[in-house]
Amino acid sequence: MSGAEKIAVKVTDVVPLNDLVTRFKFERVDGGLLPTFSGGAHTVVEMPEGDITRLNPYSLMSDPMDQSAYTISVRRDDEGRGGSLFMHNKVKVGDEMTISYPVNLFSLDLRAKKHLFLAGGIGITPFLAQIKQLERFNGNWELHYACRTESLGSYVDELTSHHPNETHIYYDDQDDKIDLLNLLDGQPLGTHIYVCGPKGMIDWVRNTAAAEGWPREAIHYEEFLAPQPGKPFEVKLAVSNKVIQVGEQESLLEAMEREGVDAPYLCRGGACGQCETRVIDYTGNFIHRDHWLDDDEHANGEKIMPCVSRFEGKTLVLDR
Amino acid sequence: MTIQFNDETFRDDYSFYNSERAIKRFPFPFHEDSYMYSVNMEQHRGGPVDSVYEKRFDVDEHYVSEMRDREMVLADDPLRCQSLPHMTLAGWDLLELIMVSKSEDYPDLFELHRDGNNWRWVNKPLGIDDSFVFLDETTLPYGPMEYITRQAQGDFCVLDQRDDNLWMDAGMVTTQADWSLDFDIGMNFFEWHAPVPLAHEKGIFVRALKFLLNIQQGAPARRLNWTMTVNPLLDTSPENYHKWGIQKTTLTPENLGAKQHLRVELQTFFRLPRSNALVFPIRCYLCSFQDLMTVPKWGRRLHRVIRDLPEELATYKGFIDNRPMMLDYLSKFDDGLPTSDGIWPDFETEPALQT
């Protein structure tokens, strides 16, 4: 079986936070305790709709020690393939859903003398759990959180009231910007940087820190890509001996799963590398969207990450 | 099943012994008549009744004596147990994992009572009844990893996961097959495996690391590894090589069946929830050749495996000099009949030795 272990849950709370973000609370259907987890972990939520089951990763934002419930926050993406719209429009209190055990691809480096968190928009969610974890052990942390507007600033009030000294908020529409160079310059030795937000922000932080001489191991980032819709295409799966069609609104991974092919995965967002698949033959062009394969691998046509990447052309044969 | 605990030693007079039941459940590591490295991982979620795979942490007749031996090793050399400062949370994770598993799997031997963070732990075989506050180190006589691994058979490596690698940042290692925690502490996966021959060339470690990094909560894994030990020694450490290395020269054709032991490690892997570290318990099982030969299938197979093992592996595993004598002994238990697939004894279907 692919992916992490599953847990049957019911939705016990749905709270719209603002125009874009809604929070969901899950408890076990059998009333038992959920596994503890480490700050930065995500769960994969299954969203069955018609003959497609989408599986999207969302960061767990509740207290990692709280085994009674998990909470996630979902930002509505009107341009996307509908995973977030499904959560916003279809999911109601009392619904039963399937989520995965926690998986952490963005864990704290517990050697750090200080944890410097940089969040953009919905990228705040993993930090909410990490902050709760660090608070329990008197960890040293500081948060710099950029939001588009005050009204879209999810959890700003909670953060500024509980942690007024550690929390710094920046509103784009007020031309507030993180003074990154100064911020990095003032950090004590042994500080680790964590950034979660839009791709532009992650690149900006990673490149700036690297240019300032920060060690690669001290810079942590997480960006889950949502699979993007695209033109339908046909794939031949050599091991399973099947020819399958990938629809406009589904990913290659989802199409394989729909056809009963047990393809490995974990994050489903182009980050973890688990679904890496060898290309046996192709005529056409890859649309690589992952950040697992490097530039050379994206150019040489030998591998594809079916969770987020697509294909346009005549023939694609995969070793799956 | 209630367990009768042996009163036995793993040093000096070597009074260690396996009961008939222990021989039958011995984890014989060869699933076919030859051996080569492989990642050979499988899910660790139970197994045949009374096999070493059945429980998350197997407790057997050697439990009490093994814990006594560990105490002696630690008294002589406290550096066998080390935990770098950032690994304390992983130590609590491990304590919880072992206490929960043992109290659920062996309710007649172990009890765990939890009221929030106020915990009471009862270990009947060792006569322990301690109350403490979970996540508060000051309420335990040792750090959490040391406390619980003084009460659990096998070595424990607690590996931090970062930078797409695993780091040997904590452990309790007193029953090891000639490697040293004090030497390896702080090393990454490739560094501590550097001395192993052939496997690097075969890409074993790259694949093994990829597998281990992806072990997730709720989905532990396991594999078997093996070597050879003369006399039933748990502590075959480099630190004490001057004591046990020389014993390899005491083997004679007459005493080999009793003195020569197959040493098997049941290695398991669990993701730890709060720390995202990985714990790697390495449980050592010893069985003398003469006891192994009571299983006809194992007699046939062990001879063939040892005979055909590449020289590099026999050297690395430390028995190249004794191999001819071992083969003289083992060949008497190989009548050339075919053997069934898999590691199990298959008493009902495998014929007795034809003489």
Concise description?
With 320 residues, chain A is α/β, with parallel strands linked by helices. Helix content of chain A is 18%, strand content 34%. In chain B, helix 11 (296-308) runs antiparallel to helix 13 (323-331).
Task: Provide structural commentary.
- The complex is a heterodimer of chains A (320) and B (355).
- Chain A is of the alpha/beta class.
- Helix content of chain A is 18%, strand content 34%.
- Chain A has 3 domains: 6-104, Elongation Factor Tu (Ef-tu), domain 3 (Beta Barrel); 114-222, Nucleotide-binding domain of ferredoxin-NADP reductase (FNR) module (Rossmann fold, 3-Layer(aba) Sandwich), CATH 3.40.50.80; 233-318, Beta-grasp domain (Ubiquitin-like (UB roll), Roll), CATH 3.10.20.
- Chain A has 7 helices and 17 strands.
- A 5-stranded parallel sheet of chain A has the order 10-9-8-11-12, with helices on both faces.
- The mean pLDDT of chain A is 93.
- Chain B is of the alpha+beta class and 355 residues long.
- Chain B has helices at 20-24, 63-76, 88-105, 144-149, 181-184, 189-192, 204-213, 241-244, 256-259, 289-292, 296-308, 311-316, 323-331, and strands spanning 42-43, 81-83, 110-115, 118-123, 128-133, 155-162, 165-172, 221-230, 260-271, 278-288.
- Chain B has a 7-stranded antiparallel sheet. In chain B, strands 3-4-5 form a 3-stranded antiparallel sheet, with helices on one face.
- In chain B, a hairpin with a 6-residue loop joins strand 9 (260-271) and strand 10 (278-288).
- In chain B, helix 11 (296-308) runs antiparallel to helix 13.
- Chain B is globular, with a radius of gyration of 20 Å.
- Chain A binds chain B through residues 4-5, 35-38, 40-41, 64-65, 101-104, 107, 109-111, 133, 136-137, 216-217, 266, 272, 274, and chain B through 85-87, 89, 135, 160-163, 214, 216-219, 273-276.
